[in-house]
Predict the structure.
Amino acid sequence: MHLGQLWHLVAAAAFAVAAPARPMPRGESSPALLTGHAHWAAASYCTNNINSTGNAVTCAGDYCPEVQSAKTATLSEFDDSTQFGDVAGFVAVDETNELIVISFRGSRTVSNWIANLDFDLTDASDLCDGCEAHSGFLAAWETVSAAITSQVHSAMQTYSGYKLVVTGHSLGAALAALGGTALRNAGYELDLYTYGQPRVGNLALATYMTGQGVNRVTHTNDIVPRLPPMSFGFSHSSPELWITSGNDVTVTTSDIDVIEGIDSTAGNAGEPFPDVAAHAWYIEDIDGCQ
């Protein structure tokens, strides 16, 4: 399937029933919190944070200032670009804010990645009953799942009482969604924030993730959350934190709507002209460090 056909399918998907939007409440989903986790997602694009165990997390070009202002160190990294796509990221500690962070990197060639994205679902009953997941996303998570789970276990023992956070952008958001779900199933409490996440599975998986609590952040008419199309059996979890301000604009509370309802079109999915450029701007130029 070619990219032009994708655009047609994405536009057609906008006719699903919409759930109402409401202003984002202050507190747990504040712009400040979204910014902090976005900076962690941005840091995964910086090559200096891969293969850098023990070093502070830094971003050339100042793409992760909140991360750089804290006392941080990478605990382990993963980088597998030979199988199932471009799987990379790190596990890090933030002693200033008492966090253990898993950050998954997005695709380095997003346009090519979109054009080559397949729409295959596969059994994901290990995650939940009746669940199916995107075959490529699930296979990618499984290549690093054992190593990440082992590192998280060790880190949570070393840094007792720290909060576990899982995040990522684009392809990294898909891996964060699946990985965070698997880690929760393994008994870990965590905060899960994804930015520009594509659909990762069927309705059963979206329902299960909704019950667990996934903070799924979207931006205006970003094309990636519209893929793979609902017409191929894919669904999105709820709620969606929809950033309505444009590129290069500072995000305030009034710029973020909470969209409730699985597969709602009240937010990103209802925008008429999906765009690749909107995919790169989440609070900042989130993939700029690459």
Summary: The helical segments are 3-12, 31-43, 65-68, 110-116, 135-158, 171-185, 203-212. Residues 39 and 250 are 14 Å apart (CA to CA). The chain has a mean pLDDT of 90. The chain has one domain: 3-161+219-285.
